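LAB NOTEBOOK - FOLDING QUEUE
OPERATOR: T.R.
BATCH SIZE: 2
PURPOSE: Compare the predicted structure-token outputs for two unrelated chains run back to back under identical settings.
PRIORITY: normal
REVIEWER: second-year student, initials M.K.

ITEM 1
FIELD SEQUENCE / FIELD STRUCTURE:
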Amino acid sequence: MKIAVPTYNGEIFQHFGSCPEFTIFKVSDDGFLDVDIISNTGSGHGALLQVLYDNEVNVLLCGGIGGGAQMALAQAGIKKTVVGGRYGL
């Protein structure tokens, strides 16, 4: 399973639609396997969704996400978890 978190310079970035990069964690039933940082070259939820899809992400953890992006994630089969609060995650 691959879990993506919006980040910027190694810190959690609050909002999906404008994040400059994703940190992608690869995990299995046996535990943590690997981590990659993927830069976003586009903007808007369509381009960011493509980055997640191309990297075979299964789950997105983020602090803020709009309704259009949520629908696009669902259509792509990517689960989302929105965690609110001052620091997001």
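ITEM 2
FIELD SEQUENCE / FIELD STRUCTURE:
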Amino acid sequence: SYDLSFIGLAACHLPDLQALYTEGARLLRPGGFFVLIDYHPFCLLQGIPTHFDSAMGKAIAIENFVHFISDHVNSGRRVNLTLLEMHEAFVDQDWIAHKPNMARYVNQPITFVMVWRADTS
């Protein structure tokens, strides 16, 4: 059992969100933490898939699945995790400085983080 399990920017690529939370919780000792950072579903609903630039500069999209925030909350609760914190990041001037094509999405959510704690009983 671990004190911490973490997943970053991968949940939106998994079709079964419940399996992710089940495994994240399984790894934890009672009182341990599960931290999830992911692409905000708002982006996917706006038609902005996650993508990466190849060495040639071409955008390559990876298959995405829309999981609403409520899907995350319900999946965590089903495996006895308690949501401690949630924060959302928004497209701001720092984002735009690195990715000027994101200017049209200013002030819209881009990512989120959830911090969960495993049931201590």
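REVIEWER COMMENT (ITEM 2): The chain has a mean pLDDT of 94.
FOLLOW-UP: none requested
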